[in-house]
Amino acid sequence: MTNPWTDIKNTDLVIVMGGNAAEAHPCGFKWVTEAKAHRGAKLVVVDPRYTRTASVADYYAPIRPGSDIAFLMGAIRWCMENDKVQWDYVRDYTNASFLVREDFGWQDGLFSGYDEEKRDFDKESWDYQIGDDGFALTDPTLENPRCVWQMLKKHVDVYTPEFVENITGTPRDKFLDICGMIGECSAVDKTMTSMYALGWTQHSKGAQNIRGMAMLQLILGNIGVRGGGMNALRGHSNIQGLTDIGLMSNLIPGYLNIPTESEVDWQTYLSTRSFTPLRPGQTSYWQNYPTFMVSFLKAMWGDAATEENDWAFDYLPKLDVPAYDILRMFELMNNDRVNLYFCQGFNPLLSIPNREKVTTGLSKLKMLVVMDPLSTETSHFWQNHGAHNDVDTASIQTEVLELPTTCFAEDEGALVNSGRWLQWHWPGATPPGEAKHDTWIMAQIWTRVRELYRTEGGAFPDPIVNLSWDYADPGEPHPSELAREMNGRALSDVTDPATGAVIVQAGQQVSGFGQLRGDGSTMAGCWIYAGSWTEEGNMMARRDNSDPDDVGMYLNWAFAWPANRRVLYNRASADLQGQPWDATRPLVQWDGERWGGYDVPDIAPTANPSEVGPFIMNQEGVSRLFTRGMMRDGPFPTHMEPFESPMANVFNPRMRGNPVARIFESDVARLGGSDEFPFVATSYRLTEHFHYWTKHNPVNAALQPEFFVEISEELAAERGITKGGRVRVWGARGQVWAKAVVTKRIKPMTCDGKTVHVVGIPLHWGFMGAAKKGWGPNSLTPFVGDANTDTPEFKAFLVNIEPAAEEPVA
Amino acid sequence: MNIDLSRRGFLRLAGAGVAATSLGAMGFGSAEAAEAAQVRAYKLATTTETRNTCPYCSVACGIIMYSRGDVKAGETAELMHIEGDADHPTNRGTLCPKGAALKDFVHAPTRLTHPRIRRAGSDQFEEISWDEALDKIARELKDDRDANFIATNDEGTPVNRWTTAGFLAASATTNETAWLTYKTVRSMGIVGFDNQARV
Amino acid sequence: MNDMANSPTTAVSNPPVQPTEAYFNAGDIVRISATRNVPQPDRQLEKLAKLIDVSKCIGCKACQSACVEWNDTHPEIEENVGVYENPHDLTPNMFTLMRFAEWENPATNDLEWLIRKDGCMHCEDPGCLKACPAPGAIVQYSNGIVDFVKDNCIGCGYCVTGCPFDIPRISQVDHKSYKCTLCSDRVAVGQGPACAKACPTQAIVFGTKADMQAHAETRIEDLKSRGYENAGLYDPAGVGGTHVMYVLHHADKPGIYNELPENPRISPIVEGWKGVTKTAGLAVIGLAAVGATLHGLFSRGNEVEEHDTEAAKTLVVEGRDPDEDPHKGGPA
Questions:
Q1: Which of A26, A699, A706 sits opposite C58 (nearest CB)?
Q2: In this structure, what are the phi and psi dihedrals at residue A414, rounded to the nearest 5 degrees?
Q3: Do B16 and C29 touch (CB under 8 A)?
Q4: Chains with ≥3 Cβ pairs under 8 A against B?
Q5: Are A444 and B134 a contacting pair at CB < 8 A?
């Protein structure tokens, strides 16, 4: 989220599209009801189903799963055509005026540079025209036909209301009503907030869905302001933290990157990350990349990371593919190329698409280690549960270790919420039986491995034996020690480069990332967390809930990264003179000498607003309507069909799904077509449950006891399905049995002249726990992910459905 | 009464709970010292309070755990109730149907209490000691890494990559667990490293 | 819209952990089932109410969850029968239930998903209490809370008959009647009910009845501004008003909210049934001597007269009002 949950009360229009906030985030949704109560805000819901969020909405419109880009580009077109644009913002705070290369273009659904063989674009033409001075050329009048604004106008021209209706199934009048409400928020005293979640990410073009709305928000001038923003409602309690700390194949804490093989050494690695400004005088804050990277390497390897050995750069692995993400790992398992696999609080048997493939993959491992507070399906993947897990136990040679961990009630530490607040918590219960903290388990495993390398030697032991492990009890580092390590400290005195004065003494915690240095004099495990545990103590444990003037910022509650800032890009809430666009909703402002206000300004405190652009992280100094080569599937979003769709791509019938999304050979063969599987399925969460956890809780199991699917009255009639009856749902990769909820809340749609029926498949059942045994949607979903993130396409795929007389027997 | 009736600095929400004014009007504070014969005994008296965060979604509601026994004092503590923390800026004491039932998640019948192993081809788990389990894991890691570690690629560039072992990190563990996990996984060269951000 | 001055605060406090005096007690009881001449308390407590704003309810069932946790009940894990109501009805272990209705508004052709939290309404004129034959099994406090006293309940089920909202449920395990207590144990220490504390959107709020009525007014005004012309408060006069009230977007049609009664009244049968009659009625149907369970405040003698015994027989066995002339036909 760019903005905190509590800021949603400041909005005038909430658009929930690609999410279901009332069901998935009820207590955050409270702030929508506050906005309605205090500002008379309106709530708009666009969703294939009439959800519980829709039940309290002012306006609801249906949409075909997987067609959001068409809707969003249509909305952008409507705003441009109807002059619903925050012109000052667009001109000065976005790259609308930047000139794009002459060889960039789009046709037949594809941008310039497509290579069908490689399933990839050559992105060279997706760039600005660069002048002799090294800066991008611009046309502040926005009239040059090659400027981003004109290019965008041309790009969205095809998305007429008729086109949108035809692709999305959203009735034209409803689409236009919503455009009208959105358009009002181009006024400086009106803001819209976008609340989205997996309904936008779990598509093969998920990142482009989000780009679409981000662009719309920029055009309306709604990024950086109170009550605005792009608010990704993260799913799990600390998935923000685990992403911040880089627990992904290609990440280093603080959104730094693991090198690739082409970055053969430290200098080459840095050379691609120089991030020099593209316009005069801009901050381009990522120029500090080397500082953060060196501080990270010092946190990892301490004294073994020296200037002479390039800070132990070679201790890091280098990638030969973009990422060994979870889909690739299961592909490799199926190819007998993985031996050991660890699942720490993760239940892939129900979470990863194409369950059959997950099962065969796990069955080929030598050893699976599951650490969890609960007895999961994954740790029991080898156990036969009839139709619910029909495996041949004896033939599965995988050894499984199931290790009991503590849960939240029994441990201590910080979780990062969706609004980037790091909040500390304390234990209040004794762990059951022999359950242990995850920190203990990881330390115990790792110290044993280190001991083996110390005594036996082996393959490249250096990064292991030299790993910094400076804890009072090496067998169980304390959360406070780990938190201090992430914050970072001075290894030798840190001085002010201007005055030479010592600003942090050796051994002291840094108070912010501005105190980090690239010369080895500081260490920080995760630079964006600098300031979370300073010499003043644990900032994440702060509990002062005061909020001057009720703005919703709570600066003294916990700690928010970066730098305790609550609204990202908040500099953009003020105009070129540094004064709030909306005087009734000030956030930060320039007093002629310094920035100040209710939030920590997202700009250098003395940066003159007329000189320094508001988006300080970007090389441009402004935000991007055109993303150059930063995304694999295009600098603008373009409509693409899901990999399994009832329709061909109207731009290019040969194009299946996202033309650059990675799909493995064996999985192409497992895609289904609409002749055999005529109905569009989409998966989702229900408010009574959390993922696959709460089915273990008898209370939540009572509130929603049994697996079901939801269909319209029309589809039920067509297939002879009765309310509460049992059905079989099947697709190209598997089948499930469920109860049928027949509802008016799902209605058939008409797209491209065809009737489209939606089958809704909620996600919370398996074969372990208190609830009735059932299946997850992953028995049906395709093994393909987003082109940029590899997030699986769980939200749009094809199935068939029929009544089933009996509970199946294996 | 030692109940703080005013939440400092809080915006008055459109939804009302027991209004501060209402409490006075209800007669609270001028109560007689009499037992409410018909009313169930108030169950949180003399419990220990601990502040925590709901482990489910990323709203991160503040919760208060009520226990018999005090972990901080080194005692055995049994959780007996969980409620939303009214001091928390985001949730203001509210909880969703998952959060409101957290106590029974902690006490779920399927909580794990002992390390177990399922041996190749077996149809059951058997208990194993922590030491045995950890030694076994360390041995497997060491042996597989030594056998499959890729130190350099064909061009001779150091790549220090280990692809035959993978690690799926969680989504609800603390930052501190995450950092320790990061250090251990990365130091070994594991690249099949992922979390639950996408699902 | 921006004037927040009169808006009440959220749940103002977390539950206390120190031993806490109850602010109301047996001395505040104004009515006792099957008991005449209840001495009236010296003081009148401020009337309380829970307000359920159906238009803000997101049907999340946090109220159900919080209710189960606070009251330590154990609802069964049932099957899915094609609906969102789980459990499928109120039970002795589920005192409150979200009821879901898919309603197509004929005026707009738009679908509305009307979600109503069902449970005890805590009537000012409680039919359950009037119908109850067991002395002291149901009491009403001067703040409006109608509470069941388990030790005195004989499980006869008359309270179910007496309730115009069909709320109480008899346990097949211990043969006692159960329903929402308005969390009297929480209210006694200055807390709101568990459901109101939990409710994420604060669709459920709690306070004095006057405050809740005032709050309802602002909500109704907001709903009217959003096009719900018939938004209104449900506080039915037929039962003397209730201490659980609803804000409805379509207050002119309570029936669309899963058959919320348009004009709830206590059944004339129950109204006609005099307190002592009920005790005798028990004897007629052989439900044990209730007096044995009585003690303390409630151990006032109840004289059973011949007429009462006969009247009870008429009511229980023949199912008609004993004060009605059978030849004139029973009440509708």
A1: A26
A2: -110, 145
A3: no
A4: A, C
A5: yes
B32 compared with A694, residue with greater pLDDT: A694
Residue A742's φ and ψ, nearest 5 degrees, are -100, 125
User: Quick check: A369 and B146 CB within 8 A?
Assistant: no
Output the pLDDT for position A610.
Answer: 92
CA distance A549 to A580: 16
Q: Do C201 and A60 touch (CB under 8 A)?
A: no
A5-232, what's its fold? Dimethylsulfoxide Reductase; domain 2 (3.40.228)
In sequence order, which ranges of B35-110 are alpha helices (DSSP H)?
102-106
Q: Which two tokens stand for residue A314?
A: 């070679």
Among partner residues B13, B25, B41, which is closest to C9 by beta-carbon distance? B13
The full 3-state SS of C135-169, as one line of letters, equals: CCCEEEECCCCEEECHHHCCCCCHHHHHCCCCCCE
β-pairing, A734-743 vs A726-731, is antiparallel
Question: Tens digit of pLDDT for each residue in C96-149?
Answer: 999 999 999 999 999 999 999 999 999 999 999 999 999 999 999 999 999 999
The answer to whether residues A111 and A104 touch, using CB atoms and an 8 Å cutoff, is yes
A665-803: which CATH architecture?
Beta Barrel (2.40)
Tokens of A555: 């600066």
Q: Give domain limits for chain C.
A: 23-332
Task: Give the residues of chain A that fall short of pLDDT 50.
Answer: 810
Q: What is the pLDDT of residue C19?
A: 85
Q: Return the exposure string of A353-383: e unless at least 16 CB atoms fall within 10 Å of the residue's CB, then b.
A: bbbebbbebbbbbbbbbbbbbbbbbbbbbbb
Best CA proximity match to A210, nearest among A503, A467, A428, A1? A1
Work out the average pLDDT over B118-142: 98
Task: Enumerate the residues of chain C whose CB falls inside 8 A of the CB of residue A33.
Answer: 56, 201-202
**Which residues of chain A make contact with C4, given a CB cutoff of 8 A?**
38
pLDDT at position C14 is 87
pLDDT (0 to 100) of residue B1: 27
DSSP-derived secondary structure for A138-201: B-TTS-STTBHHHHHHHHHTT--HHHHHHHH---HHHHHHHHHHHHHTTSTT--EEEEE-HHHH
Optimal mutation site among B48, B58, B87, interface A, most CBs of chain A within 10 A: B58
In chain B, count of helices (H) and strands (E)? 4, 8
Peptide bond into B158 cis (omega under 30): no
Rounded alpha-carbon distances, angstroms, from residue C61 to A29, A58, A258, A703: 15, 22, 44, 8
Q: How confident is the model at residue C314 (pLDDT cuts 50, 70, 90)?
A: low
Q: Among C64, C74, C200, whose Cβ lies nearest the Cβ of A703?
A: C64
Q: Where does CATH 3.40.228.10 sit in chain A? A: 5-232
pLDDT tens per residue across span C136-146: 999 999 999 99
Q: Per residue in C48-86, pLDDT tens?
A: 999 999 999 999 999 999 999 999 999 999 999 999 999
Task: Please list every residue in chain C whose beta carbon sits closer than 8 Å to the beta carbon of residue B49.
Answer: 14, 17
The CA distance from B43 to the nearest CA of chain A, in Å, is 17
Cα A592 versus chain centre, distance:
38
Query: Considering only alpha carbons, which residue of chain B is nearest residue A252?
Result: B182
Three-state SS annotation for A11-53? CCEEEEECCCHHHHCHHHHHHHHHHHHHHCCEEEEECCCCCCC
Q: Do B171 and A237 touch (CB under 8 A)?
A: yes
Interchain proximity A249–B99, CB inside 8 Å: no
Chain A interface, mutation test: which of C2, C77, C99, C110, most A Cβ atoms within 10 Å? Answer: C77
Pick the CATH number of C23-332 from 1.10.10.60, 3.40.50.720, 3.30.70.20, 3.40.50.12280: 3.30.70.20
pLDDT for C313 equals 52
